[in-house]
Amino acid sequence: MDTMEKLRILSDAAKYDAACTSSGVNRAGVKGQLGSAAACGICHSFASDGRCISLLKVLMTNICAYDCTYCLNRRSNDTPRATFRPQELADLTISFYRRNYIEGLFLSSAVFGSPDITCERMLETLHILRNEYHFNGYIHVKAIPGADETLLQQLGLLADRMSVNIELPSNDSLKRLAPQKSKENILLPMSRIRDGIKENAHDLIRYKSAPRFVPGGQSTQMIIGATPENDRCILQLSEGLYHKYSLKRVFYSAYIPVVQDRNLPALDTAPPLLREHRLYQADWLLRFYGFTADELLSEKTPDLDPMLDPKCSWAVRHPEEFPVEVNRAPYEKLLRVPGIGVVSAKRIIRARRQAKLDHEGLKKLGVVLKRASYFITCNGKMQCRLRTDEPAVLAGILRDRGLPQGGIQPEIPEQLSLFNPTKEDAVKCLTGQL
Ligand code: SF4
After folding, report:
1. CA of 291 to the centre of ligand 1 (A)
2. Closest CA to 148 of 168, 118, 170, 175
3. What pLDDT was estimated at residue 259?
4. Helix, coil or strand: residue 208
5. pLDDT confidence of 412, banded at 50, 70, 90?
6. Which of 45, 48, 231, 368 gives the lowest tally of CB atoms within 10 Å of its CB?
7. How far apart, in whole angstroms, are the C-alpha atoms of residue 129 and residue 123?
8. At what angle do helices 310-317 and 273-288 cross, to 10 degrees?
9. Rounded to the nearest whole angstrom, what is the distance from the C-alpha of residue 186 to the centroid of ligand 1?
10. What pLDDT sits at residue 156?
């Protein structure tokens, strides 16, 4: 099998790993025009400053010793198999890099023989890239649960980011669908990476030239919709992972039915994209807006509202928290107002030191008044004479978003367009403001 055929199989097999935001396109070169696009596993990730990075996203191998029910690469599935040699994959990465196709590598793998053997091969690939080719670009590598601690440590010294997939939202589901994996096997490498990052931070204070260990932090991925856990259970798990393992991100991956099995949704079930979208929004609220999972959802309402984003939904259910007076409210209270994001809350705090703010002024600071006006006062006054009882607020928000107020048709999730954005979309796209 030649390298391009392996690349086709192994980049296709990697597409279910959610650690980036989009996949590539396939476009041949045209005479008289500059460049071409290769679909083979090029995905995009975003740096902390919002810069978009193209990555070669590929598996080391899709030959797997495990038999996870939901996975196309499972041992018992009849699918074309391929394996890269470490030198081959390093050469491929460098040739893509030199052609300017990519800026980095996202490397994952099925379990080839054993977690240790798999990890050794990934380590050899990274070693060639970093120490023979002196490749300085971004590398994200998946840690294989069950691999030896020393191997993980060495991988962490060569990679920018590491991730260990939590896979499913509960131990019961893991036992049922991925019996060769265990909660302990997944959480142990996570805690090792967390400790390694902490120790490395101390080393760097003492010795400035100490090698860096996973400088981009660690992340994880969870499959949504393959198992019966509700959104509350998922968000509680994410919250625990952020606090306990200092994760940078939890990626939610809507389950795409690829396997006929009585423990999984039927093959014609649509992937729960709207649910995935709402979970990402709620995740922003956990990380940047000071919400807890138990505030957003309760035993009585264990799932996110498909009609409204989680912040609006929380605000509509908590009229006792509103209205908030923008000229006096502390930062934490401003953050809870729908339509006021992290950036606009900071701007409000700065601007009101100079002068009292009114509704026109808030608009200039980036506040989305269409949503915020139901929940704020400026100098004790609400905008127009809005009704602020729960049904009126809900109907008003839905009407402003062009949705039926009878509450039937949920918002359809779609990729935000950068080509024809509203101002609100563009800001949300870049900063995750809610
Ligand atoms: S370990 Fe499980 S999820 Fe990973 S590739 Fe093998 S079968 Fe798929």
Report:
1. 34
2. 118
3. 85
4. coil
5. very low
6. 48
7. 10
8. 70
9. 13
10. 95
Mean pLDDT across the chain, nearest whole number? 85
Enumerate the domain spans of the chain. 3-25+37-296, 310-431
Residue 102 pLDDT class (50, 70, 90 cuts):
confident
The reported pLDDT for the residue numbered 46 is 58
Question: Would you state the structure tokens that stand for residue 109, as one six-digit string?
Answer: 């793998």
Residue nearest to atom 4 of ligand 1 (CA): 110
Atom of ligand 1 nearest to the CA of 67: 7
> How far apart are the CA of 65 and the centre of ligand 1, in A?
8
> Is residue 106 a contact partner of residue 19, using CB atoms and an 8 Å limit?
yes
Pocket test for ligand 1, best of 9, 12, 64, 186 (most atoms within 8 A of CB): 64
pLDDT of 39 higher than 60: no
CA of 64 to the centre of ligand 1 (A): 6
CA–centroid distance, residue 62 to ligand 1 (Å) = 8
Which strands make up the sheet holding 249-254, listed edge to edge? 42-46, 52-59, 104-108, 138-142, 161-163, 218-224, 249-254
Query: What lines the ligand 1 site, CB under 6 Å?
Result: 64, 66, 68, 71, 73-74, 110-111, 178
Is 123's pLDDT higher than 70?
Answer: yes
**Which CATH fold topology does 3-25+37-296 show?**
TIM Barrel (3.20.20)
Tokens of 120: 């050794």
For a mutational test of ligand 1's pocket, the pick from 66, 77, 142, 220, i.e. the residue with the most ligand atoms closer than 8 A to its C-beta, is: 66
Burial class (CB in 10 A: 0-12, 13-18, 19+), 268: exposed
Cα gap 297→307, rounded to integer Å: 15
Distance 361 CA to ligand 1 centre (A): 54
CA distances from 175 to 72, 143, 170, 179 (A): 18, 20, 9, 5
